[in-house]
Design goal:
Blueprint: E1 3-4, E2 6-8, E3 11-13, E4 17-23, E5 26-36, H1 39-56, H2 61-77, H3 79-90, H4 94-114, E6 121-124, E7 131-138, E8 141-145, H5 153-164, E9 168-172, H6 178-190, E10 198-200, H7 205-214, E11 220-224, H8 227-239, E12 243-247, E13 252-256, H9 262-274, E14 284-290, H10 291-306, H11 326-341, E15 345-348, E16 365-368, E17 385-391, H12 394-402, E18 409-413, H13 417-426, E19 431-434, E20 454-455, H14 465-468, E21 469-476
Parallel strand pairs: 1-5, 8-9, 8-11, 9-10, 11-12, 13-14, 13-18, 14-17, 16-17, 18-19
Antiparallel strand pairs: 2-3, 4-5, 6-7, 7-21, 12-20, 15-16
Helix pairs in contact: 1-7, 2-4, 3-4, 3-6, 4-5, 9-10
The protein binds nicotinamide-adenine-dinucleotide.
GO molecular function, one term: oxidoreductase activity, acting on the aldehyde or oxo group of donors, NAD or NADP as acceptor
Family: Belongs to the aldehyde dehydrogenase family.
Pfam family, one: Aldedh
Length: 478
């Protein structure tokens, strides 16, 4: 099989090590063979980006616009093919995968436009005759480190603004999903980015990622992934006094009130908890349900779950693809065992399922009779596992929704304007959904959380400029 190489300093480069990209729907199938970069590769990429920054930071916004638009156009034109690749390497269903590819294309389109809209301010000075200009400049070399669960959308929402605002990029995708990253890199390179402006270094976090974290020449790091790795990014960034941005885990609540429309509530819960195999940082893993609707909701959700087909990600009719790999499956199964040991009732699922091909197939799983202190209600599982917590009323529901160290997304299902409004104002999370699943899907608005879920400025939309630019205040006496 051809080895998909890294792209460093304007060249596709051979790597001494390679890794097989395995299809989680069929572990006998190798999706492709990908380079695994060394420390020297990462260092070379940073040096190339540093050199390229001198001219790219001053390049015309028309050039940047045209490159980003070209990238968007090709991604959207190849949505089916790229979606199939994504589904085969990550395991989300084909419609979900194509949806993610489209989102990546739309993000590049959005930031193509943003290149032309970067504005500053001109203010009168307190000193007569003096003028003050406030402008935004690119930050420099940015290291982009991404997780496996959104193999093209998350890279897109970091790379597009980084390039749009004149930064040079060293992109390190997650080891499990190099396929979508490589395909995206290939599109960006062919769209005409000058040498050194964009570098792809696939490889291990402990090798390639570690070099990024410890380099004095990396001026900003945008990271999405686990809390444990996020803390390393934070510690090293403080050591180097560099900008950093973290998007990490979640333990997102979905509150269902007595006055909710039952069909809407069940759809929000099924989508939020189990779609994308529950492997979303925004997954609704705590279903907080008030007393009077509790039993009807649990029954209706079980009926809905009985209709969810778990199978090969690219097969027609599959609702839930496999878990991404053996490690994640082991983690999911261990939390299912913990839930049972803690005394929760296993109301649905919990078992592995066999399909035509060997894959990591797990039933969507629901626990009931759970309490807020249980580990299954406090720790991120990152699989198709949700638990129901029964509460008396809205006030208790809100208190429990906020009783978590995370704060990414939160949701409520209610027909009460009063409760919806109060919840939007008092939920301690970066994103709040009313009668909608907890996933944040719009590509032109900010994405991010509070507390242990996020650190630093928001990603996406116009808010991305906060991270990918730095402000300069200039005084002039003409
Ligand atoms: P992870 O932390 O294991 O890996 C994330 C990235 O960091 C990978 O590219 C990995 O190679 C790299 N990395 C690992 N060790 C490193 C090190 N020592 N130095 C530098 N880089 C290193 O996370 P994951 O398992 O890929 O992703 C799952 C996690 O991501 C979950 O916790 C999930 O909630 C979170 N996530 C958050 C968001 C969000 O926007 N908040 C979105 C998606 C996923």
């Amino acid at each position: 099989m051809t080895v998909h190489q890294n792209f460093i300093g304007g060249q596709w480069t051979n790597a001494t090590e390679t890794a097989d990209n395995i299809n989680p729907s069929n572990t006998r199938e190798i999706v492709g063979v990908y380079a695994r970069g060394s420390r020297q590769d990462a260092e070379a990429a940073i040096a190339a980006a540093k050199e390229a920054f001198k001219s790219w930071s001053r390049s015309s916004v028309q050039l940047r616009h045209d490159i980003l638009l070209k990238v968007s156009t090709e991604i959207l034109a190849r949505r089916e093919e790229l979606g199939r690749l994504l589904a085969r390497e990550e395991g989300k269903t084909l419609p979900e995968s194509i949806g993610e590819v489209v989102r990546a294309g739309q993000i590049f389109d959005f930031f193509a436009g943003e290149t032309l809209r970067l504005s500053g301010e001109k203010l009168p000075s307190v000193r007569p005759g003096v003028e003050v200009d406030i402008t935004r400049e690119p930050v420099g070399v940015v290291g982009l480190i991404t997780p496996w669960n959104f193999p093209i959308a998350i890279p897109a929402w970091k790379i597009a603004p980084a390039l749009a605002y004149g930064n040079c990029v060293v992109f390190k995708p997650a080891d499990l999903v190099p396929g979508s990253a490589w395909a995206l890199a290939d599109i960006i390179i062919r769209a005409g980015v000058p040498e050194g402006v964009f570098n792809l270094v696939m490889g291990r976090g402990s090798v390639v990622g570690d070099v990024l974290l410890n380099s004095r020449d990396v001026h900003a790091i945008s990271f999405t992934g686990s809390v444990a790795t996020g803390k390393k990014v934070a510690a090293s960034s403080i050591e180097h006094m560099r900008k950093f941005q973290l998007e990490m885990g979640g333990k997102n609540p979905l509150v269902i009130l007595d006055d909710a429309d039952l069909d809407v509530a069940v759809e929000c819960a099924a989508n939020g908890a189990f779609f994308s195999t529950g492997q979303r940082c925004t997954a609704s893993s705590r279903l907080i349900v008030t007393d009077k609707i509790h039993d009807a909701f649990v029954e209706a959700l079980k009926v809905r779950m009985s209709k969810l087909v778990v199978d090969d990600a690219v097969k027609d009719g599959t609702h839930i693809g496999p878990v991404v790999d053996q490690n994640q499956l082991d983690q999911d199964l261990s939390y299912i065992a913990i839930g049972k040991d803690e005394g929760a009732t296993l109301a649905w699922g919990g078992s592995l399922v066999q399909r035509e091909t060997p894959g990591f197939y797990l039933e969507p799983t629901l626990f009931t009779d759970t309490t807020p202190e249980m580990r299954i209600n406090r720790e991120e599982i990152f699989g198709p596992v949700a638990s129901v917590i029964r509460v008396e009323d809205y006030d208790e529901a809100l208190a429990l929704a906020n009783d978590t160290e995370f704060g990414l997304a939160t949701g409520i299902c209610t027909t009460s304007l009063k409760h919806a409004t109060h919840f939007k104002r008092n939920a301690e999370a970066g994103m709040v959904m009313v009668n909608l699943p907890t996933a944040g899907v719009d590509y032109h608005v900010p994405f991010g959380g509070r507390k242990g879920s996020s650190y630093g400025p928001r990603e996406q939309g116009r808010y991305a400029a906060e991270f990918y630019t730095t402000v300069k205040t200039a005084y002039t006496l003409p």
